[in-house]
User: Fold this.
Amino acid sequence: MGPVRWGSLLRLLILTLLVAEVGARVGVYLWAGKPFRSLDPYVFMQDGGYWNNPDYTHPYFVHNSAGFRNTEEFAVQKPERTLRILAIGGSTLYSGVSVTPFGWPTKPGTDKVLTAFLRRRIEADAAFRGWKVEVMNAGLNLSGLRENAVNFLANLSQYRPDVLLVFGSANHFLHSSAVELAMPFGSRPSRPFGERFELAANDRTIQGLAERAVRTATYYSAFWGASYRLLDRTFEAANARVAAAAVRRPRGARVADVDLPLERRGHVVENLDVAYTEYAGFLEAIFAFCRVHGIRPALFWEYYLVNLRGVKPYSDYERALSEYYLAHDSRDGWANTPLYFRMRDRIAERARGSGVPMVDLLEDFRGHSGTVFNDYLHYSENGNRWVAERVFAHLRPLFLSVATGAGGPGATAALR
Amino acid sequence: MRLRREEVRLLLEMLGIIGYSFVLYVALRVLGEPYSIFAYARF
Assistant:
């Protein structure tokens, strides 16, 4: 027996990894219908926030080269005779999906989200003939107004939109942001992916080094990227199940139904006032910025499916979903808390005081029996189409004020 | 090139160490996070 041939072994090791990489790239191509670029949905921003990865490779969740959820590109300098609308918000705007008791809903493609439908609806209006219409979708999953406001003021405002649509109320008050906002006021703020950002950007320990190595490998390699994604989600699901198993849950609810530990939910609901002060502050900052720069702001209130019980004639799918959530949830549907509606009313009053329109589709829902919801919050493709139609109906005067050159609401409002 | 049994074992061990480290790292990091609110949303 001779000595071990380390050179050959090393070559074989590299060859094995190369074969795995080629296999993974073929797999990604078959899945996404396009060559692999990256499987990481997000990138970190200089401001400490996160943003959609322009290189994200996915069959439905397509981003343009600047990270917007649009298939079309936008010049930073707005072209002549262009109505430019910028929408900021969370996953309702982005049109992400969540798992339901009936499985995964169909994911709307990037040309089937409400901003895409809104653009086509405005273009079809004769009053905008001769105008180029751009509706930029800056939806960012898991983000609340804190993330959206900072991103708008620091980065997105460079696009100088005519109209700014502010989505994201659900995330801010009852979801991801709210989880952190619910901590005592004045405690160290955290953001979605905050800990991962710290590891990648500021951590100088071995773990920080490992994090950067893993992030680099998973960004450029389809094999490591796919493996990472699979593992990350498996462990995350396991982690959530363990966390959820440790808290009391309503009778009949499976551990998998509890995506946020119930104790934490209670904490969120009881601290909505804290979330409101945060929201109001960021909102006033946005209003002030818009006033200075002649941008017309408008708000959009996001309803949860269970909020519309007794209001919207549910489709069969929506009724089944709503009944499931109400039956298996604590507090008779945590998103149904009267405090959430109080937030809506306070924000509406604040917007009124600043002359900013707020799109509240409650009355519109009363007359619509088609399926709008894909899950507890996000819209289906048809839902996106319907919501875009209603947003257009509510905000047409605002859009027209750009085309006619009249000072729109918000453009003239005094700062309170 | 034909690998000897010992060399095959070494190759498998190297692949195992790389894979095991990767799995362990991702697991430790994810499980080290205080709670997860993202597990049931797919984007």
Summary: Chain B touches chain A at residues 1, 3-4, 6-7, 10-11, 14-15, 22-23, 25-27, 29-31, 33, 35-43 (CB under 8 Å). The CA atoms of residues 35 and 41 of chain B lie 14 Å apart. The longest strand of chain B covers residues 41-42.
